[in-house]
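Shape matters. As here.
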Amino acid sequence: MQNAAREAGAASAAVRYRERLAPSLWLFLAAALGGPMLTLVFVPAGSGIALVIGVVATLAIIALMIAGSPSIRVEQNVLRAGRAWIDASWLGEPEIRTGEEARQARGPGLPARGWHLIRGGIDGVVVVPNTDPADPAPSWTISSRTPDRLAAAIDAARASANSTA
């Protein structure tokens, strides 16, 4: 039992940064409108059945939105953004973009060959150069609600990866 607790503590200590890019409150409210609309469709079958279907549909939509949200993690010397991951030793200096710079980085300034994890409703963006010559993606562009913390975690992982190499 103590070994399991020690391993869990070591695993959580290895996580430098974690963020789930869940939809904004406005998207949840918009999704929640699907349930009442579905209830109205099933009213001819019976009001009780229609109400149950509407509630279940609303809960299912919201649960799917949360479960389908990608996450960003910096664990030990690895950056994980959604399903993709890269060793921190291949990362360059992260650039924090907010406001108009972030809009530019998400829109016209977005590199076509780069790796992107962009979510609407999240203003901050971190752009990280990829120095791996074998990787076709020259940079990673990642949305973040706390871009300064993400950039700091990437810097710490880079320093750790370069000191062990």
